[in-house]
Write a structure and sequence with these properties.
This protein has helices spanning 3-15, 24-35, 49-59, 73-83, 146-149, 168-177; strands at residues 63-66, 89-92, 108-111, 120-124, 127-129, 134-138, 153-159, 163-164, 185-188, 193-194, 202-203, 210-216. The protein is of the alpha/beta class.
C-alpha cells in the first residue's frame, strides 16, 4: 500500500474516531458483506457476451474488430494506422498480451508514459463489460493512466475470455483475484465526448476522439 493511500485511510479513521483498522466481528461482518453482496435487478443478456459488448460499444461511438490470434495484433495496428493516416509511431503500455508481442520494424513503438507529441497509444484492457459496452482499465507502473487520456487515438486490446456480464462483476472479480486494488480503475465507454458548450457535441474533448478495440481469443 502506498504512503499516500495509508495517509488517506488514516485521515478517514481519525474523522470516525478510530485509531486503528477495524478488528473482530465488525471487520468480519464487513468482509462477509463484500463476499456476498446482495443482488440487484439486472437485464438479461443471454450467452453471447462478446456480441452484446460489440453492439453497445459501437452504439457509444467506438469501433472494433476481431482477430483470430493475438500474434496478429502488430499487423492489425499497422493496418489501422495506415488506413487512418496516423503515422507509424505509437506509445504502448504493458499487459499479458502486449508484453508477448513482436512489433514490425516499420512501426516505432515506445513503452512508457505518453508525451504531448504522442498521438496514438496501444493499451490493454483488464476486462470488458458486456452490459454497458465498457472497457475497464487498471492503472499500474506499466499502464499509467495518461495512456488512456492523453493521445488522441487509443488502440485497445481485450481478450474475449475477459468479458464480464455486468458492471458489478468487475468488483467481484477484483476481490476474487486477491490483488491489491490499483491506484485507479477507469471505465471507458466509447470516445471522449461532451455537449457542455451550447449543447454542441464535441468528440475528443477530454480524452481520445478515436478508440478502436481489438478483440483477441
Amino acid at each position: 500500500m502506498s504512503a499516500s493511500r495509508k495517509a488517506i485511510l488514516a485521515s478517514i479513521r481519525s474523522s470516525l474516531k478510530r485509531s486503528a483498522p477495524l478488528q473482530g466481528s465488525v471487520a468480519g461482518g464487513l468482509e462477509a458483506r463484500l463476499q456476498h453482496c446482495p443482488g440487484h435487478p439486472r437485464p438479461a443478456l443471454g450467452a453471447a457476451l462478446e456480441e452484446h459488448f460489440i453492439t453497445r460499444w459501437r452504439a457509444a461511438g467506438g469501433s472494433c474488430s476481431r482477430l483470430t490470434d493475438s500474434k496478429g495484433v502488430p499487423a492489425a495496428v499497422a493496418r489501422y494506422l495506415k488506413r487512418h493516416e496516423l503515422g507509424f509511431e505509437v506509445v504502448r503500455g504493458g499487459g499479458e498480451i502486449l508484453n508477448q508481442l513482436h512489433w514490425p520494424s516499420r512501426l516505432t513503438v515506445r513503452n512508457g508514459v505518453p508525451q504531448d507529441e504522442d498521438s496514438v497509444a496501444v493499451t490493454e484492457a483488464w476486462v470488458a463489460v458486456a452490459e454497458t459496452g465498457s472497457l475497464v482499465m487498471r492503472t499500474s507502473s506499466f499502464m499509467p493512466a495518461t495512456l488512456n487520456f492523453l493521445p488522441a487515438c487509443n488502440l485497445v486490446l481485450v481478450s474475449a475470455t475477459r468479458m464480464l456480464r455486468y458492471q458489478e462483476d468487475v468488483w467481484a472479480l477484483l476481490r476474487r483475484e486477491g490483488t491489491e486494488p490499483p491506484r485507479g480503475i477507469h471505465l471507458i465507454t466509447g470516445p471522449s465526448r461532451t455537449a457542455d458548450v451550447e449543447q454542441t457535441l464535441q468528440i475528443g474533448a477530454h480524452g481520445p476522439g478515436r478508440i478502436h478495440v481489438f478483440i483477441v481469443p
